[in-house]
Structure formats: structure tokens, C-alpha cells
Amino acid sequence: MSTQPSRDDLDPFFVFDYQPLDLPETESDAATDQRPTTYWDVQRGDRGPQPLPDWVVTDAGAVDTELGILKTGKEADVFLLERAATDGTGHSSLMAAKRYRGQEHRSFHRAAAYTEGRGTKKSRDTRALARGSSYGRQVAAGQWAYAEWEALCRYWSAGLPVPYPVQLDGTEILMEFIGDHDGVAAPRLAQTRPETELLAGYYEQLVRAIHLLVSHGAAHGDLSPYNVLVHGPDVVVIDLPQVVDIVGNPRGLDFLRRDCVNVCTWFAARGLDVDGDALFGEVTRGTI
Length: 288
Ligand SMILES: Nc1ncnc2c1ncn2[C@@H]1O[C@H](COP(=O)(O)OP(=O)(O)O)[C@@H](O)[C@H]1O
Ligand SMILES: [Mg+2]
Description:
This protein is of the alpha+beta class. It contains seven helices and ten strands. The strands form three sheets. The chain has a six-stranded antiparallel sheet with strand order 1-2-3-4-6-5, covered by helices on one side. A hairpin with a 7-residue loop joins strand 3 (76-84) and strand 4 (92-100). Helix 3 packs across helix 4 (134-157) and helix 5 (196-215) runs antiparallel to helix 6 (252-269). The longest helix is centred in the middle third of the chain and has 24 residues, at 134-157. It is globular and about 80 Å long. The structure holds adenosine-5'-diphosphate and magnesium ion (MG). Residues 226-227, 239 line the site of magnesium ion (MG).
């Protein structure tokens, strides 16, 4: 005879109602790369700025599903992720997961010129970075992710057209996916052949973006038609880990000039009457 108490015998204090999560149950489901949402696992400062866009899924029982890879790169890979609530609201949204690699060396070379003057608080980390150990590479990947996270948060709040940063978790940034609802990513500007009217609009938006950064004492540092996504009539600037301090960094203005030249060269080749050095002069007028 069973001695198991029925639920009615238990003190209500010990009884709780729960809704089973819609987590994968079979082996093949598990293979589709699902995980419980990490939104509430990260520190408060590692969740995106207010006001929270309404598409951000904050349900603590949400499930993240990796839908595929958007792009592999030298320093980071970008994946397409869907975060879906399980609270019955049917709320779900797509995000781009940018994951910095700890195993690559290039970031060290890239680091030197961009990060002059940026300090590392922990001396163990400083030594590991200098040695280039695998722990050091992990630290570097985390620092690049953090630098990009910080830039996304700061400049999204300032009104720069960048993807909304949802959360930072170590070497992974989750951000707004720029593309359509089916998961087709917006093309890079470099892949597009816009008609004159759109072309002028894109250029104007980029000039405004450069101006805005300069007004914050910064330059993108790697601005090019490859780091600009085209979303209908709008541009979205991406890839900001190396944002440069144009005042504190002795080469800051060189980076700014290069950004201006990269942008103008592309637009000039498509028929716009623009010039990188002229733009550089225009955006720095009054600041240097
Ligand atoms: N938020 C995003 N939405 C859609 N596609 C993105 C997003 N972020 C990155 N991508 C895609 O991934 C590519 C690489 O991202 P990027 O940040 O430029 O990293 P990398 O350092 O590898 O150049 C981009 O060119 C773009 O195609
Ligand atoms: Mg890039």
C-alpha cells in the first residue's frame, strides 16, 4: 500500500503551482540548440538600456533557440537566435548573437592602436594579456565584447542608429537582429546598389552618425560599407568594439579621417559628389 501523501494532505505552504516549461524533450529537439533564456542570469548593468523596446522578451521562462549562423569572422561569429516566451503570450523575437572568440590572436594586434590608454583593472588579467596565454585570449575576447557592449549601450541611448543591445554575457553580446521576420539579415551597404535617391539618404544618415559620434568625442574606428547594414530606407551602423576616443587617443583623428574616407570613397564611386577629406574637415570644424 502506498504511503505517499496525497497533495491534499500537505500543508499548503509546501505546495506550489507551476507551469511546465516548453523545453525540448527528445534527443532530436535537444540537438536544435536550445537553452533557457540567460536574460536574468547576467548582472543588471549587462542588460540593455531603458526604455526597453517592446520586442525584448523578458519572460524568465523563455527559451533561446539557435537558428543558424549569420557570419563567421576573424574575431567573432554572429548567430541568429530566437528568444520565445513560454508564459502563454506567444511573445518572441529574433536577435543576433555576436560571440567573440578567445582562441584568435588577431585581436591582440588590433588591440594595440585602438586601446592606447585603456586600463585593465586586474593585474592577473594584464599579465595574461601580455603573455598571450589562452586565459589571456579569453580575457581579450571578453574585453572586446565589453567594449562593443558599452559602445552599443552608450550610442543607442544617444540616438545613433545601432542595433539595440539586449544583454552581455561574457564574450557574447545579444542584440537586435537587423533583418526581416523570417530571419533574413539586412544586407551590408557594400552589397547593395541603391538608386540615387536612396544613396543620398544613406549618405546623409552616415554623416549624421559620424557627427553624433564626434560630438561625443568619438569615432567608429572601422566604419566602412561592410559595417553598415541597409534596412529599407535606413542604415544601421554595426561592429563597434574599437570605437576610438578622438581626444585621448593620439591616433584618434587618423581613425576618424579614415572612417570619413572609407565612407566617401564608396559613395563617390556610386556617383555622389562627396570627398573624405572634405567630410573630415566638416565634422571636425570647431572641435580641433
Ligand atoms: N545585429 C545584426 N543584425 C543582422 N546581422 C548582423 C548583426 N550584427 C552583425 N551582423 C552580420 O554579421 C556580420 C559580422 O558582424 P560584425 O559586427 O561586423 O563583426 P566582424 O567583427 O566579424 O566584422 C555583419 O557583416 C552582418 O552581416
Ligand atoms: Mg564587421
